[in-house]
Amino acid sequence: MKEDFLRRPRSLAEWSADALRVVGIIGVGVALIWLVPTDAGIAALALPALMLPRALGLRGGLDLAVCVTVLVAAWSNVLDLYRTIPGWDLLVHLVCTGVLTIIAALILTRADVVAMTRDGGARPRTPLVLAPLVALALSAVWEMVEWLGWAYLSDEIFVTYQDTIGDMVFGGIGGIAAGVILASSSLTRAHSTGDVAGSTSRSRAGGT
Questions:
Q1: How many other β-carbons are positioned within 10 Å of the β-carbon of residue 88?
Q2: N or C: which end of the chain has fewer CB within 10 A?
C-alpha cells in the first residue's frame, strides 16, 4: 500500500484524481474559514475516502470516479443540494454506495476476509451475492451517521423514516451494480517494470 500511495501518477486519470485530492484538502480549509464548523467536518470526513483509492492502487479511471463521487457527495451536503434538487439524494446514494462497496470489497479481499474481486481470485457469483449485502450494511451505517448528526450536531440534517428507507433501497441497487463491476473488471492498476524493479531493489536493500 505504501508503494502505491507514494507512486508517481502516470496517466491523465491518475493526475486528475490527485488534483481532486488536493481540491478536497483545500476545501476543508475553505470550509473552516468561510463556512460553519459542521460543513468543515463534512468536508474533512471525505478525506480518508479520497486517499484510500491511491493507497489501494486502483486503476486510474476508477480512482478518478471514486474521487469525483466522494467530493460530490460531501459538497452536496455542504451546498444543501439534497434538499434543493429533487431525487439528487437518491442518485448520490446509489452511486456513492456502489463506489464505497467496491472499495470495501477490495479491502476485504486484501485482508483475506473473503475474496470479492476478480484480481483476488473470486468466483463471479461471489461479488454478485455479497456486494449488495455489503452495500446495505454501508447504507445502514450511513443512515446511523446522519441520525447521530441530526440528534447531536444539527437539527437541519434531514432525517425521516421514508428518507432512510429510500436511501437504503438505492444503496442496495448501487451494490448490485458494484457486484457486476467486481465480477467482470480488474480494479487495480498494472505495475510497470519500473515499479517492480524499484520494489525489488528496496526489498534487497532491506534484507539481511
A1: 14
A2: C
